[in-house]
Task: structure prediction
Amino acid sequence: MKLPKRIILSLLPALLVAATAASAAQRSPEDTVRRYLSSIQEHRFAEAYDYVSSTLRGGKEREEWAKEQQYIVQMGEVKIFGFQVFDAVVADDKAKVPNILKSQDKYLNQLGLDEYEIYELIKEDEEWRIDQQTLVDGSDRAEYFPGH
Result:
């Protein structure tokens, strides 16, 4: 049975929304961090909004938050050269994702040294979202980054 073209076109938006929602629900903590960092690296700040918690959004709508991130990246002359995301440690609706960030900026990392980070994620609206990011030094580094 062949469906008329207008019926198929009318169903298309609903199918796209369903596919996007299913993809987000299946996104792992590691995927969330990778997508977030890729979005920031490629200056797709409005997209990065999808990967952070309501706490990190600070009550801001997508456009305002994205403009703020763009300003921070531009003023700090932030350059992300790459990142290496490690396996998450998941406990119920929380996860910690280690990452080694290769970046450089005007204020805190002028030499472009590797930054050892832990991204803390929570489940919010059935999706993994970044809720906090911490730099790791000393003995904590060995716990999350064995061999580094």
About this structure: The longest helix spans residues 5-26. The helical segments are 5-26, 29-41, 45-48, 54-57, 62-75, 139-144. The chain is about 45% helix and 30% strand. The chain has one domain: 28-144.
